[in-house]
Amino acid sequence: MTADATTGALDLESRPRLAPGVRLKYDEARSCWVVLAPERVLMPDETALEVLQRLDGKKTVDALVAELVTAYDADRGEILADVTELLNGLLEKRVLAL
Amino acid sequence: MNAPRTTGSQLPPPMAVLLELTHRCPLQCPYCSNPLQMDQVKSELGTAEWKSVLDQAAKLGVLQVHFSGGEPTVRPDLAELIRHARAVGLYTNLITSGVAANKARFDEMVAAGLDHVQLSIQDSDAATAEKIGNYAGAQQKKLTFAKWVREAGLPLTLNAVVNRHNIDRVGEMIDLAVSLDAARVEIANVQYYGWALKNLAALMPRFDQFEASIATVAAARERLKGKIVIDYVVPDYYAKVPKACMNGWGQRFMNITPAGKVLPCHAAETIPNLQFDSVRDRPLAEIWAKSSAFEAFRGTDWMPELCKGCDQREIDWGGCRCQAMALTGSASEADPACGKSPFHAQLRGMAEAASHAAAPEFQYRRITPRVDQKSDAPEPVAG
Ligand SMILES: C[S@@+](CC[C@H](N)C(=O)[O-])C[C@H]1O[C@@H](n2cnc3c(N)ncnc32)[C@H](O)[C@@H]1O
Ligand code: SF4
Ligand code: SF4
């Protein structure tokens, strides 16, 4: 029944998106991107921002990793490990939902 | 990050503003944090004035706006204000008792772009809940309201204030939050200011009740990991370290009363001799930077020697100024919730004594407090 359950395990076919009630916006006053969530404001670092901006609920983790590998000309294994850790952290904080 | 921010020029913008749209409320919680002297309807800011506040807040760098009160949903212009807040880029949170709005009004708020709802309950047990709020039928209305929130796809936080009458049911409150599909539940022990201080003896839980609640919460967190976020705010009187009240006075947060006074914290009016500015007289940005009430306890310069020499001074900022005022007679003392405060033992002793004595009757929250407390028997109130 829970549309925004965060409990499902993350895998390559998951399509993460911003959880309901969470918004990413550019803050003019502080000149940085902010994640607005219930009772919280997070300031994503460069890597997190890069990932958050690419998520739309349609893109799979697999596709996201492929994009990043191309963009940074980096090792797929490394990117996958970093992305998985980041996504799991954001899922736990309920910034993302599956 | 933690450098003392005592001058206007280095001052970062506020993160959030809480608008007390009105002090009117159908409920009469004896722990209500609103002041004993409440703003009358005729003094409330009008729609255009609140919109101007929202414009100014967004421009100043505020990111989140909390619509609260009193009961914010009794204001007919709430949806209009939510729409305006969203239009200027603010994140909108509604803090409500859930008893005053009908479905059509709620749908208007959703359509206006409401981001999140915090719904308060008085207990998981309906009878006690309705005795605490002094409003028959409140519980069913709240459960229905929670359903509307989730059906609209909005994230829900359930807020429960705990005291000696309901703290033994924190487990049931958490279960209720899960059954309502809340993403988060915040269980907060009463903070003793406003009406709560007046009702301290009627509310203070025993230490053993508090200890049992800690264990229940810990077990629930383990059991419900990934399902729901459980925040537990422990009672100051049984704490050893004070809370970082407001994340530091005048550092992150502004509270605006129904009549437009801008306060560093919602209880700040309990501190005598502070001068508060009104949005009716001064631009919000100027109030944030220069209002003497904000300057009074900003940073660390005001601190007593005890805090000045303590390595926690930029972590808890000396705790709550209003609690220091209420319990030590001086707002410039360390919060007596701190184990190092010379007033701490006395505070703890007072709490223990009150909690073991028979609970007195509630003195219910009233806009015009009555002298005859005998008439305070629970009675249904027209919504
Ligand atoms: C003052 S109420 C106003 C909004 C609305 N009437 C409501 O009850 O949700 C704001 C929030 O503060 C909580 N609250 C009220 N008095 C409190 C106190 N003395 N200590 C801790 N929380 C309190 C309420 O449960 C509610 O979640
Ligand atoms: S805490 Fe209770 S009495 Fe106070 S405003 Fe909220 S519902 Fe009303
Ligand atoms: S002495 Fe002051 S700064 Fe140190 S913990 Fe206590 S209240 Fe906080």
Automatic annotation (TrEMBL), chain A:
Pathway: Cofactor biosynthesis; pyrroloquinoline quinone biosynthesis. Keywords: PQQ biosynthesis. The keyword Metal-binding does not apply. It comes from the Bacteria. Gene3D superfamilies: Coenzyme PQQ synthesis protein D (PqqD). The keyword 4Fe-4S does not apply. Monomer. Interacts with PqqE. This is Pyrroloquinoline quinone biosynthesis peptide chaperone PqqD. It comes from Dongia sedimenti. The gene is pqqD.
From TrEMBL, chain B:
Its cofactor is [4Fe-4S] cluster. It comes from the Bacteria. CDD domains: Radical_SAM, SPASM_PqqE. It catalyses: [PQQ precursor protein] + S-adenosyl-L-methionine = E-Y cross-linked-[PQQ precursor protein] + 5'-deoxyadenosine + L-methionine + H(+). Keywords: 4Fe-4S, Iron, Iron-sulfur, Metal-binding, Oxidoreductase, PQQ biosynthesis, S-adenosyl-L-methionine. The keyword Iron applies. Its EC number is 1.21.98.4. Pathway: Cofactor biosynthesis; pyrroloquinoline quinone biosynthesis. [4Fe-4S] cluster binds at residues 25, 29, 32. The keyword Iron-sulfur applies. Binds 1 [4Fe-4S] cluster. The cluster is coordinated with 3 cysteines and an exchangeable S-adenosyl-L-methionine. Coiled coil: none annotated. Residues 11-227 form the Radical SAM core domain. Catalyzes the cross-linking of a glutamate residue and a tyrosine residue in the PqqA protein as part of the biosynthesis of pyrroloquinoline quinone (PQQ). HAMAP family: PqqE. Interacts with PqqD. The interaction is necessary for activity of PqqE. Belongs to the radical SAM superfamily. PqqE family. This is PqqA peptide cyclase. It comes from Dongia sedimenti. The gene is pqqE.
